[in-house]
Amino acid sequence: MFQIRIHGRGGQGVVTAAEMLSVAAFLEGRHAQAFPSFGSERTGAPVVAYCRLDDREIRLREPILEPDALIIQDPTLLHQVDVFSGLKAEGLVLVNTSKSADSLGLAEFALSHPAVRLVMVPGSELALKHVGRPLPNAALLGGFAALSGQISIESVEKAVREKFPAKIAEGNVLAARAAHDHVRSAVGKAAHAQAD
Amino acid sequence: MLKQTEGSHAVAEAVALCRPEVICAYPISPQTHIVEGLGEMVKSGELSPCEFINVESEFAAMSVAIGASAAGARAYTATASQGLLFMAEAVFNASGMGLPIVMTVANRAIGAPINIWNDHTDSMSQRDCGWIQLFAETNQEALDLHIQAFRLAEELSVPVMVCMDGFILTHAYERVDMPTQAQVDAYLPPFEPRQVLDPQEPVSMGAMVGPEAFTEVRYLAHVKQMQALDLIPAWAAEFREAFGRDSGGLIHAYRTEDADTIVVALGSVLGTIKDTVDALRDKGHRFGVLGITCFRPWPTAAIRQALGNAKKVVVLEKAFGVGLGGIVSANVRTSSGSPESVYTVIAGLGGRPITRDSLARIFLEVEAGTAPALTFLDLNRAVVDRALARERATRRSGPIAEALVRDVGLVTAQLR
Q: Which ipTM was obtained for this model?
């Protein structure tokens, strides 16, 4: 089982992101379970959504306490909520930001978690460019596809088209592709640097 | 057809496939997405003929359902929590008059203190209202139970409540196999009411009945529920034939045959319990799981048989009788050869997560004989003691809920 926890704020499409992720995995014939953190959803309040992927039926209903991957939709949460709680030693972290890990104050975290793969992607910027609004959820799923290899970018695109009306979907698909390319090249560079 | 969708939406689609003629509802979390979905289908004409009636309260919702059902229409509504309490008088009327309404309860806690999260206090408060109560373990079962519920309700002329965990199921996206209209039509015959308001043949429904016949009217309601104990498994078997999967029935047993300890529960927590039990089995602990799908009528014989030779029984429940303890446990004890070996674990109140770690810990304590008869899972004893100390120290100790929220701290900063 592969477990993803998504952190963001009310209004950023956090729950929709988890739902689309589950649809993308379903389209690949996998079992997937997405659910929100069930808080009182208010615009701006911290929101958590979860998604589990597996090749067999998922029976577990507890919140995801030990995620394999984190998607941080809002970097201002990094020092407000314990977003890294329970993250596996070799976990993946995708942060929506145009800044560097160092300038977000993540240098210490990176040092103390050497096996964690921490990747930054400017999801909101890409969404603003392609969708016209800084709603980063679809873009981040594109980035997640590149980072994790758990789902293909094609499935993300199909899920986005299933969830949004055609006009909004197209921009989100472009944002997802752009984020996918961004993360793929960032991961490639990191692997290259490690090899050196 | 397999699809990945939200539980509420799956239920809305399944209800639509049952061809309801009147849907009346008042929105309340976490039921809202179900009736929104149905409202959209009526508006678009996808569900037709059907009248969707927006009402001003839950009391009105059930009253409209009663009127519609009495007029011979297949009637459906959905609610949760305070909404169920607000309609309670009409809920008893629906069963008292024997009107086959189907209602979804998206299970949620009852205030005060106000809490929108999941537990079973709402439907448990209506356990003796004369409705059949079915509990869904998954979204697949939730949608399947609705199809079975209409048939059961109309055959017996008894209303049926389909209970599904609020948020945990209603708001979860997972895979469901949505039947076709032809499949549902073949399984669920058109509504042929036993009683109908008809100007050509006037009848009176809900007439006053004095001491000379009241007991007999109530007894007949009991007889019908006893008949349901035969119909429910028979129709679940028929459902399996027609739809190719196990859904509904009275109970679901899992690894119980050689179990020393059997865990009994209702609803979506069964999945987490099964995962926990599998892990314990791998370490040599012989646990089994008994899911109760049909809570009313209470399937005494089936449960007695399933508990069979188990040395101990743990009942894990998401509601409790204040001043007593477990509600489901009290029922289980009537079906157990040794009531003193039935342990109660109250868990998941007001949406508190029920984790494998906590379950495994209490299950092993029960197995070892160190658990008390009644446990509140993951109870924060320090906070409770502080509240009690405050009451001892000061007469005017203030509202308990407010003080506890302050003691526990900022919840949004916590994940569990």
A: 0.94
